[in-house]
Amino acid sequence: MATKIESDVSGSMWKLIASPGDMVEADAEIAIIESMKMEIPVVAPRAGKLARFLVAEGEAVAEGQVVAEIE
Predict the structure, then answer these.
(1) What CA–CA distance (Å, rounded) separates 40 from 42?
(2) Rounded distance, CA 69 to CA 50, Å?
(3) How far is it, in rounded angstroms, from Cα 57 to Cα 52?
(4) Which residue range(s) make up the domain with 53?
(5) What are the Cα distances from residue 32, in Å, to 1, 20, 24, 42, 67?
(6) How confident is the model at residue 1 (pLDDT cuts 50, 70, 90)?
(7) Which CATH number do you get for residue 47?
(8) Tens of pLDDT along 5-42?
(9) 66-70 and 29-35: which strand pairing?
(10) Given the DSSP bridges, would you call strands 66-70 and 60-61 parallel, antiparallel or unpaired?
């Protein structure tokens, strides 16, 4: 079952660090959201395979929005 990763802030998806299919460790940064000129990391809540991102670089992100899934 996939684990959903939600954004903690509203902003813009600035950079995708990991790629779908990558194995990630718990607490690894997988993306960065820009919010009020600050860079906020999106971290993996657990180890696993990054299944997919649900937003692309440059897209708006709302607080609580699911931005990625880990299998």
Answers:
(1) 7
(2) 6
(3) 13
(4) 3-70
(5) 24, 15, 15, 6, 11
(6) confident
(7) 2.40.50.100
(8) 999 999 999 999 999 999 999 999 999 999 999 999 99
(9) unpaired
(10) unpaired
